[in-house]
């Protein structure tokens, strides 16, 4: 293995899912729903395959999906993208983000990320030979919800003449923070001051709670021309295995993604793209209902975790809730996550692995609540029996 990829090992999601399977645990580690997306979406894909949509689609993606993505983005956020030159389909958001970093970051360039950081960003930065600078999101007082926020001064200190890009994920995995227009304003100022590109990971854009709305960074003044937005169908339609994503941005940034991606995956599954294009138009009521259901699941699991003795930091979106283990008399989240499958037959993810400053996340464990209610209840019962 090349030196720059040493230390990445196996992803925490693969490790914890394997442990969950080995111990027959309820898997609240890796974030995937245990029910499938809208029936018309599933049938739409099956129909396309039967009808013979089985050869390479165009490199940039099926025009139907690029048009649907552009129409959706314009309708929801007032952001106009040319489907031909400013929208490009990738094998999930992961490939879009990695291709963006490989296409835009020179060796030695710095890339700012927020920690806890989604694990694919550090790997992509390392592949490009870039250097990452992590700005910490810290929880507020738990009795006020414990929302994770960054310190604007720390962000300003992390950006300098070598900074090429900043990767921003909102709604944020794993903290559930949905950044506000004001918080994005700080990021926008820094980007413009230092001529920095923003890559925004918006895969949870539809999964926000309590009436909180997702804000795309590209809607802020001066940001559309320097933002590459990334999203995907996986979370929106509960089909995480479909790996159908897209990037949206000014043509020059999209071309950088395309140049790299044509040699990574070349193209993505065409039948699934057509089904997703239909769903973006026809299944937004389903998405709204799913968002409401997820909010109830958040509350259900949070209550159970509290009853089991954890301090719960309330997420405003995503599939995940962060829990502080210190009230249980524990300090090491990594240790707890490694033993929990055997002691309670529940799997979770230790947040510490997402930090460059390990002490910030030592005592935090992430639980996924995107599961059927009876599964959440059983997990809570098992965790309750622990204490
Ligand atoms: N970004 C974040 C923050 C995620 O949680 C995930 C996991 N789904 C991804 C990207 C990857 O998305 P995709 O499956 O579309 O590659
Ligand atoms: N995004 C999912 C999570 O955070 C996992 C995706 C993966 O396994 N790489 O749990």
UniProtKB/TrEMBL annotation:
Source superkingdom: Bacteria
Cofactor: pyridoxal 5'-phosphate
Listed Pfam families: Aminotran_1_2
Entry EC number(s): 2.6.1.-
Ranges for domain Aminotransferase class I/classII large: 24-383
Entry keyword Transferase: yes
Enzyme class, first EC level, given as a word: transferase
Record keywords, A-Z: Aminotransferase, Pyridoxal phosphate, Transferase
SUPFAM superfamilies: PLP-dependent transferases
Any GO molecular function: transaminase activity
Entries under PANTHER family matching the protein: FI04487P (PTHR43807)
This protein's name: Pyridoxal phosphate-dependent aminotransferase
